[in-house]
Amino acid sequence: MQTFNDPILNEFAGALMGLAPYGGADVGEVDALVNQVTDGDDGSFFEACSAAARERIEEGDAAAAAGHIQTAYDCYMRASLWLAFSYHPLYGTPVDPRLVDAFHLQMQTFEKALRLGVVRAEPVDIPYEGTTIPAWFLRAPGHEDERRPVVLVGGGWDSTMTENHFGFGVAALARGYHVLLHDGPGQGALLIDEGLTLRHDWDAVVTPVVDAALRIDVVDPGRIVYWAWSLGGYFAPQVAAHEHRLAAIVADPGQLDVGVKVTAPLAQLGLDADAMARLPELSDEDERTIMAFFSENRGMHWKIIQRGLWTNGGGNLSGFLAEIMKWKLEPAEIAMIACPVLVTAAESEPLASNSKALYDALPGPQTFMLFTDADGAGMHCEMLNRSLANRRILDWLDDTL
Asked: I need a surface site. Which of 60, 79, 176, 246 has the fewest CB within 10 A?
């Protein structure tokens, strides 16, 4: 669905609209956004999204003062999502102070919503390598004091717990699951405030989250699920190979090898066989060729230069490639996965290019779930039909657990 000609702004506006079923942004709100934004202007997009968020915060404050708690909750939640997407186009280093301020307001507003009590929620501080992983535990409405399964809601390359909650946390709560939202290094506060970057051994992040979940009395220790989307489709099987207290995982979409999706296309830019074999090392000429391509390609510049060099670290293109080439599941690691695995793939999603290969390599039990263009769910993270994705995934979880 085309909202902007600019591919990055179009993706984020589409994501806002795709999360409408879960209280994100209604179609009319996104249509109004499009009319306010200069196509291709990141600052214009940021200002329009931020203004929409501030309007919802003001509406929420007035509603809370008048005792309309549900309205306040809805407004604050919407505002937090608008803020989350507002600064995405500003990704990169040096970090834009507008991004930092918007992120802090996003999380303050998200917390303000959760503390209203519409959904019973409590913050969880999870020790992690000298700092803490920010997290919130949300109890399934109507089952707050019952021991039930919990979904550990994981993100990907550039989402925070806010977007992840709208993406599938809300749906999991409605189905009767407790939910533990969390960010990790390279995401949210650990990236923006502490400068910690993503890591390929994501089990080091999720194992403390499982430990924290087991300390919560209403969590069924035999029914802990790790569900992650986008880049999290690599995280989930990597975690399951090392963390054997999980009852099931969802990899949406499943990813066997992240690095090859970045390195393989470099041959099309003129790198010969010898240069490809030397990766991640790059000659000065090859680096200039690659950087020139990225500079002329809006989507790739944002994904690799703005996002990748910041969230993954590495310092430069060669360093980034060295890091991303570690993001690969080896056969011995895959053989260690013992819990049931749901591997999803969206038909036109580049990240799903080796989802079937992951599924075929799993020792089992495993399930493959394809989302098609004909169903309006063939794009990244099934973003324009999350309702369909969540229904089918949650049905699988119900049956599996």
From this structure: 176
